[in-house]
Specification:
The chain is of the alpha/beta class. The protein has eight helices and eight strands, in the order ββαβαβαβαβααβααβ. It has one domain: Rossmann fold (3-Layer(aba) Sandwich), CATH 3.40.50. The structure holds NADP nicotinamide-adenine-dinucleotide phosphate (NAP).
Length: about 260
């Protein structure tokens, strides 16, 4: 793993329509950070594909984007837990016929799994968390790579989502920590393979952020003491913006 952890350039100010003509797929777009990222990308001009497992949540985000005058989004319900290779191919074909190409993927969907010692960690929980948090981003990226190379803007950005426990494992974080380490390592492998192409790949560690997942991991914490998803959006915008076109293979902290 690289020792260098990057943060948002201090002089970055997104143009109001920085993502015009961008087509961006956001996973886990129905809630938490993914929901706010989808709204943020749309408010900067992107057409957003809302992927997640709970249709009602995706529909609510769709309505929010339409009501605020963003480009018409698309909804793609998908549960990563049992998704097969054919489902990823079907997704690629659907996006190909609807949009012709893709300029970004935000790999955001994840599950926390159990917080318990390895000696007690259930094998099936381990397998499920690795499937959703590590295998799904691999299969999704692999399936959609041809579309990223046909981006309507001529360049594309893949953002993976790490965690502080990805960079240093911690007691009781089990499969979640291992899956996040796998995701950041996949980001680096992909970035190395994409070096010199029009597609770049980086990862964001959001840091403590006020969402349902955070509340579930830290039930005693006062949510008012931590940042909202809205407050960490500048980095999410920067890595989709063409201003970050030369950035590839880097680990970022949003806080
Ligand atoms: N919040 C933090 O403090 C924090 C810190 C470090 C890293 N992160 C990372 O940031 C990302 C967003 O986290 P968050 O806090 O916003 O979490 P969240 O509020 O729990 O949202 C996670 C999203 O992922 C979706 N998802 C979960 N399992 C899925 C599956 N099997 N198939 C498809 N979609 C699935 C959820 O769908 P449903 O809405 O249908 O449940 C939800 O929309 C995650 O990768 C997380 O690991 C968060």
């Amino acid at each position: 793993m690289s020792e260098t952890i990057n943060t948002l350039p201090i002089d970055y100010i997104p143009a109001s329509q920085a993502l015009t003509n961008d087509i961006i797929l956001v996973t886990g777009a129905g809630d938490g950070i993914g929901r706010v990222a989808a709204l943020t990308y749309a408010s900067h001009g992107a057409t957003v594909i809302l992927l997640g497992r709970t249709l009602a949540k995706l529909e609510a985000v769709y309505d929010d984007i339409e009501n605020t005058g963003g480009p018409q989004p698309a909804i793609y319900p998908m549960n990563f837990e049992g998704a097969t290779e054919k489902e990823y191919t079907d997704l690629c074909n659907a996006l190909q016929s609807e949009f012709g190409g893709l300029s970004g993927i935000l790999h955001n969907a994840s599950e926390l799994g159990d917080r318990m010692p390895i000696r007690d960690y259930a094998n099936d929980t381990w397998a499920r968390i690795m499937q959703v948090n590590a295998n799904a981003p691999f299969m999704l990226t692999k399936a959609l790579l041809p579309l990223l190379h046909s981006s309507p803007t001529g360049h594309a950005s893949v953002i993976f989502t790490g965690s502080s426990v990805a960079r240093q494992g911690r007691a009781y974080w089990g499969a979640y920590a291992a899956s996040k380490a796998a995701q950041e390592n996949l980001m680096q492998t992909l970035a190395d393979e994409l070096d010199g192409t029009s597609v770049r790949s980086n990862s964001i560690n959001p840091g403590a952020t006020r969402t349902a997942m955070r509340a579930s991991a830290y039930p005693a914490e006062d949510p008012q003491t931590i940042k909202t998803p809205e407050q960490i959006m500048p980095l999410y915008l920067y890595l989709m913006d063409k201003k970050s076109i030369a950035i590839n293979g880097q680990l970022f902290n949003a806080q």
